[in-house]
Amino acid sequence: MPETPSGWSAEQPPPYSAPPASPWTAPGSQQQVPYGQPYGQPYGQPPYQQAPTGPGPGTPYPPYPGQGPGHGYMPPPPALRPGIIPLRPLRLGDVLDGTIKLIRSNPKSVLGLSAAAALVVSVPIALGQAFVFDSAQLIASDPANVTTGDLYGSLAVQYGSSLISLAVQFVVVTLLTGVLTRILGRAVFGGTVTTGEAWHLAKGRIGALFGVVALMAVIMVVPLVVFVLLIVALGATGEIGLVIGATLLFVIAYFAYYLFFKTRFAFAPAAVVLEGRGPIDAMRRSWQLVTGDFWRVLGILLLTWILVGIVSTVLAFPFSLAGTMFSAMGAGTAATAVVSTLLLTIGYTIGSMLTYPFEAGVAGLLYADRRMRAEAFDLVLQTAAIEQQRQGWVHSSADDLWHPSNSARP
What we know:
The chain is an all-alpha fold. It contains 11 helices and no strands.
């Protein structure tokens, strides 16, 4: 076979000839590139203006400018989601959606416990409201015989019942959050817990939960006591304007104070139940978890409280309206007071029965989110979820995974 001076066979194509046609291209559709012309370069373009040959803007290779990933791009696999949340750091939508799934996946346990808690909280305020409605009707029907004592008595009952209800709510919601957190800890893996099992798992931590409630009560009440003493001292001077100004400033300052400590210690019930910590240690643990993400946690909790308030008001409004109208139709009778109290209790119970678990679920999922972000806890959850999927069931030992010793990063 004859050879050229360069040593190549006359029938062998030169080393830089056009590449062969693609096997996936229809015959006749392959563009013919003249010999010596770089592949991908328009015919007639000088060699020194050769077009770029690597991926990037202005090249014939993907990704093209303004388009998405090129051919062969593989998106990251979705996070494992064996239960109510994906096992990765959570977004706001994940937290809200996971809370709804918590209620739907364990309706008997969650709603049953919440209904019992809501009933306990609703009774004092319903009794107070019924008494106020009845007193208002009597005052309106015979205003000439109304005394100052009647007015002060009505106000005392109204605000006293509200304060009692708030105190009961503070205790009950904290305990309920602890019990529901136990249900949530299993629901993350797709498991369910009965009401009796949830109570059995959480009852050993009730004392520590009451300790958290007591410490939180001290933190919240001490500024109020100081304020009352200050107001009494200012009132003795007779300066009404000074008293009003001090009251307004205190309300603003106390609101910020309440939000700060409520956010800082929002994860204390979860730390008590899931990590087995004592009251002080649990509050310290909550403070550490919130550090570094305070504003995000506060924003989600505020949004939750607003949503809870709206939903609770909407659900309770028909029963409150019916109780008010029934009380207006027959003031002063025992039957009217009983029916009004019953209607108001039903309204508050229904509203709180749905809102309490929502608030507790958001706090519990935020606790899980902060552990995933701060301690790489999602790796622990993913490993456990894979093993549970291999076994085909969620073992009760999954509750032990929440202990801080299992964190991937301390």
